[in-house]
Specification:
Uridine Diphospho-n-acetylenolpyruvylglucosamine Reductase, domain 3; Enolase-like, domain 1; 12 helices; globular; four-stranded antiparallel β-sheet; alpha+beta; Uridine Diphospho-n-acetylenolpyruvylglucosamine Reductase, domain 2
Length: 297
């Protein structure tokens, strides 16, 4: 199918983009990489009268290290994140996640900001960034805001952004020395949306005790979920197989899946437990300085 008729704008500044959004309100939509919005428009599930493309704005597709964080412009493409030596070296979990998004064509066009704002419950970026403690910067006619991932994404395909508010940057803290992170997902076929996914970011003391941990679950709720009770079981303890299994069971219990064409709720809970134990083992190895390739697992 073809999308309904719309008027197209390509502003040169963020302020111009915000002005257009303020003028046209709910009848306008922002276009970033287009890998989510364009298919919806072709199916006429979305029919904006005004399309505001951010591609002409300079400075929104950069990857920089600053003040203990890695800063991504909102229009940074998945392929750019995947190929970044900075991301590979300092944010392995994020590299895992972005490498699993769609296919090569989608990664060459899709953007980190667009992916987050689309807020697909089965998306790969949100759970990874949730576990990493990422924040997003935004701009609107009311000024600037900084939001945590769970503050930005409030429901399936829904965010806390105002009508004239756009994401400008994504800020990801660089994990401390002795940390390891990993993102794993189960998919029916390569490039598909997740049936279930798990992100684990862990920090170890010199004696192997878990000093800090974050566990995020994807595709098993209307938004990405922090498995905080599972985290509590591991924090301050040395992780062994028994404790890992207990935490896996707890993570499964904290999942809130629903049955659909990808599987039953019970099946997805089981997957969470399996993926969590695999992810925890890899995160522990990475925290110990071992390189583990998840692409070919």
């Amino acid at each position: 199918m073809y999308p309904q008729e719309f008027e197209y704008f390509c502003p040169e500044t963020l302020e111009d983009a915000v002005g257009l959004l303020s003028k046209y309100g709910e009848e306008a939509r922002v276009l970033a990489g287009g890998q989510s919005l364009i298919p919806l428009m072709k199916l006429r599930l979305a029919s904006p009268k005004y399309l505001i493309h951010l591609g002409g704005i300079q400075g929104l597709s950069t990857i920089e290290e600053q003040d203990g964080m890695i800063s991504f412009g909102a229009l940074t493409r998945h392929a750019e994140v995947e190929e970044s030596s900075l991301v590979q070296a300092k944010l392995p979990m994020m590299h895992d996640a972005v490498s699993m998004i769609g296919d090569v064509q989608i990664r060459n066009l899709g953007t980190i900001g667009g992916c987050l704002v689309h807020a697909d419950p089965a998306g790969d970026m949100a759970p990874a960034l949730l576990a990493l403690g990422a924040r997003v910067n935004t701009l609107s006619s009311n000024g600037k805001r900084t939001l945590k991932i769970h503050e930005l994404i409030v429901d399936a395909y829904s965010t806390d952004l105002g009508e004239d508010e756009v994401v400008t940057r994504v800020l990801v803290p660089i994990p401390q020395k002795g940390s390891g992170g990993v993102y794993l997902k189960f998919e029916r076929r390569a490039g598909d949306f997740a049936v279930a996914s798990v992100g684990v970011q862990i920090s170890l003391q010199k004696d192997g005790t878990c000093s800090e941990i974050a566990v995020a679950l994807g595709a098993v709720g209307f938004t990405a979920i922090r498995a905080r009770k599972a985290e509590e079981l591991l924090r301050g303890k040395q992780v062994d197989d028994v404790l890992a299994k207990q935490a896996a069971d707890q993570a499964s219990a904290e999942a809130d899946p629903f049955s659909d064409i990808r599987g039953s709720a019970e099946y997805k809970r089981h997957l969470v437990g399996v993926l969590f134990q695999r992810a925890l083992k890899i995160a522990l190895k990475r925290a110990g300085g071992e390189e583990v390739d998840t692409v070919h697992l």
